[in-house]
Design goal:
By secondary structure, the protein is an alpha/beta fold. It has a single domain, classed as Aldolase class I (TIM Barrel, Alpha-Beta Barrel), CATH 3.20.20. It has 11 helices and 13 strands. It has an 8-stranded parallel barrel, surrounded by 4 helices. It has a 3-stranded antiparallel β-sheet with strand order 5-6-11, with no helix packed on it. A two-stranded antiparallel sheet has the order 1-2. Strand 7, helix 5 and strand 8 form a beta-alpha-beta unit.
């Protein structure tokens, strides 16, 4: 009952400021050993995906904790895994503010953050201080000022930097908030990037004696031909999973609402149906050859089941956590 009161107050304030303060408070209470009574009990429902054992199938999506400043805080909410980032090789401020907008009428969020983060070294330092021992994925991207034709080098740098610390690495080529980034989902740019990452991992595996799985995060705005191409390329390159989906540029479900025309990616309830369609389309194409992590508009156990029934092996939440609160994690795990 406390979260609706918190949300009513928080939604009167600047969303980015609230986000930062909430992470700070959540991390502080975790370190003080205070129970997160708003989260409720979260039962164990272990599942094995990508050769990793997850305590349950519900994870935190990338974007919520870009710099790894709240790993223990989010870990205390009962997530089966956390995905940190997106992180870039060098620190960068992201796009000009304001860049985060709530659409309460449709339970949506529009962001054009632009991979604002403190850089990969800062994330690794923060992660090294965390007590959380669950599965951690690290989501990597390119710096905004790296030309798209040289993006591959940034992803290789990111993979090399996080390889030994991440339980899996997520490759973000689908954010709409970095210029031309989604071009990396197409043709030779996509196959070349995957080949380079696969070769780099092969070298790192020899150096470290450890195999770190890689997942690729894709957009919901792909057409059928695009999904055909991506599914084939993922299998051929030896990727370990696909994350479906990132935010959408489609505004049809929020037309006429305040902030609906703001530039950026739309997440939350308005993307749920399309995200599930992409999960189902990938499942039909992949036929179990690699797992799918479903994300987009999960606000309840029923929403999570929809993704799992469509073919996802794991799910992630982001906007649902903001609109429903920390109890959502336990609700989903108990209900699936």
């Amino acid at each position: 009952m406390l979260y609706p009161l918190f949300k009513s107050l928080a939604f009167r304030m600047d969303p980015e400021w609230v986000h930062e303060k909430t992470l700070s408070l959540l991390q502080k209470t975790a370190h003080e050993g205070k129970p997160h009574f708003m989260a409720g009990e979260v039962p164990e429902k272990p599942v094995e995906v990508m050769g990793l054992r997850f305590a349950n199938p519900v994870g935190l999506a990338a974007g919520m904790d870009k710099n790894g400043v709240c790993v223990d805080g989010f870990g205390s909410l009962g997530f089966g895994f956390l995905e940190l980032g997106t992180v870039t090789p060098r620190p960068q401020p992201g796009n000009p503010k304001p860049r985060l907008f709530r659409l309460p009428e449709s339970e949506g969020i529009i962001n054009r953050m632009g991979f604002n983060n403190q850089g990969v070294n800062a994330l690794l330092e923060n992660l090294g201080q965390a007590r959380y021992r669950g599965i951690v994925g690290i989501n990597i991207g390119k710096n905004f000022d790296t030309p798209i034709e040289r993006a591959e080098a940034d992803y290789v740098l990111g993979l090399r930097a996080v390889y030994a610390r991440a339980d899996y690495v997520a490759v973000n080529i689908s954010s709409p908030n970095t210029s031309n980034l989604r071009e990396l989902q197409k043709g030779d740019a996509f196959t070349g990037l995957l080949c380079s990452l696969a070769n780099t991992r092969r070298d790192l595996q020899k150096e470290t004696g450890t195999y770190t799985p890689m997942a690729v995060k894709i957009a919901p705005d792909l057409d059928e031909a695009g999904l055909d191409f991506i599914a084939g390329a993922l299998v051929e390159s030896g990727m370990d999973a696909v994350i479906a989906t990132n935010t959408t540029l489609d505004r049809r479900r929020v037309a006429g609402q305040p902030h609906a025309e703001e530039a950026g990616g739309l997440s939350g309830s308005p993307v749920r149906e399309r995200s599930t369609e992409v999960v189902r389309g990938l499942a039909n194409r992949l036929q179990g050859r690699l797992p799918i992590i479903g994300v987009g508009g999960i606000f309840s156990a029923e929403d999570a089941k929809e993704k799992l029934d469509a073919g996802a092996a794991l799910v992630q939440v982001y906007s649902g956590l903001i609109y429903r609160g920390p109890g959502l994690v336990g609700e989903i795990v108990r209900g699936i």
